[in-house]
């Protein structure tokens, strides 16, 4: 009997289309002999749809016209079995699901929001949990956690949009202390959306106001001017980890842009997601530096409580040869399959391993105690009997 895999993608995020590309790519490579693939597409207005036609990338060119052929659905738990049921009218069961494979990118999806919903339902799912997903999305909190673990991060500052609007001069002073050039980023977005490199104070306000369009929290980092940017993927869980080949990324700009990642390398007008980006594999770094990057990747993976497949991005100063951890991607574009193929792991096998790992994690987690059979409320006699409420006045 085939395992029924519900692949969730899309969502209310500026990385919506990137998620669609990554998900369709993955569904095309899943072993159809072993898995019954059930696409679950979340539109930008948070409506859930399911239909086999959603496995075709061309559908999304005009989904508003075609969506009447897909079913609006909800994901529910009925007596320990997970179902997709129709969202309108009579709640008709569409199909049952054994496991969910989230392939979503960006805030409102990859940041633990979806994972929290799946945890509440109780359905097993692939990838990092709520905490790891949230840490991996917020560039400020992730830096704070990584710094507490002793990982090298570039000099930075951060602030909320209201703070900048009310205390602009003070924030500009903080940025000046870091020293130009700097890079301005929305704290919780990916795919290089809303990012600007600023070389002088004359242009900083424009860059910050651009970032504020997307996010309440803004991070400003020191630019590594003699930069080599490398990425390494990690796959596993808290018990074991393995690392991929390391890539060296290249860009037509001062940083790897959205266009570099998803547009410029596309052939015939069709993007292959992050696989379209210009890259050198393996990275042109020494054996010693390669070992350092791989060791750091595993330590960051464990520190942030990640699981499944992730991509850890690094910045190397070519002059000092110092390595900085830039950020993790808990659900990387194209699931970083292009970093695993050079070490002999085909995409189909990689997806199979991720699903197997998620099932194992789910079984291990369910062995732990999550609730008690006893009901402390059975003898509850009102607020007077509640521990800790002795001082409560009527």
Summarize, please.
The chain is α+β, with helices and mostly antiparallel strands and 394 residues long. The protein folds into 3 domains: 3-125, Rossmann fold (3-Layer(aba) Sandwich), CATH 3.40.50; 155-222, 2-Layer Sandwich (Dna Ligase, domain 1), CATH 3.30.1490; 225-365, 2-Layer Sandwich (D-amino Acid Aminotransferase, Chain A, domain 1). The chain has helices at 16-29, 63-66, 113-121, 130-137, 139-148, 161-166, 168-178, 204-212, 258-262, 287-303, 337-340, 347-366; strands at residues 3-10, 35-42, 48-50, 71-78, 81-86, 93-97, 99-102, 156-160, 182-186, 196-198, 217-222, 227-236, 241-249, 279-280, 308-317, 323-329.
Q: Superfamily at the CATH H level of the largest domain?
A: ATP-grasp fold, B domain
Q: CATH class of the largest domain, anyone?
A: Alpha Beta
**Radius of gyration, whole Å:** 23 Å
Largest sheet: 7 strands, mixed
The global form is globular
Q: How far do the termini sit from each other?
A: 61 Å
Number of domains: 3
Could you state the order of secondary-structure elements as H and E?
A: EHEEHEEEEHHHEHHEEHEEEHEHEEHH
